[in-house]
Amino acid sequence: MLGFVWTLRESRLYLYGQRFLLRTDHICLRCLTTFKEREGRVAQWLESLAQLDFEVEHRAVRLHGNADALSRTSFTQCGRLVKGSAGAVHAAQL
């Protein structure tokens, strides 16, 4: 839940004034705006997000194929990585 709140806070300038849909596999977030007793940290989070107009939609994990595309790709052959001065990767052949 903290990741969701952090992302919306960081993206506030782009999202403010627009209605948007948040699709997530975290089913508890679907009830985010319907908490009856808001206390502590959750109350602070909801207060900071109150200006945004969004809807939370749950999508099962097995239907989120696009979210894990890079982590689930199988590589048959990897090239060598060329590292620069600060250890950054400059080129890779996949």
UniProtKB/TrEMBL annotation:
Coiled-coil portions: none
Residue ranges annotated for the Reverse transcriptase RNase H-like domain, each copy included: 1-51
UniProt keywords, alphabetically: Endonuclease, Hydrolase, Nuclease, Nucleotidyltransferase, RNA-directed DNA polymerase, Transferase
Signal peptide boundaries: none
Listed Pfam families: RT_RNaseH
Keyword Nucleotidyltransferase: yes
GO molecular function terms listed in the Swiss-Prot or TrEMBL record: endonuclease activity; hydrolase activity; RNA-directed DNA polymerase activity
Name this protein carries in UniProt: Transposon Ty3-G Gag-Pol polyprotein
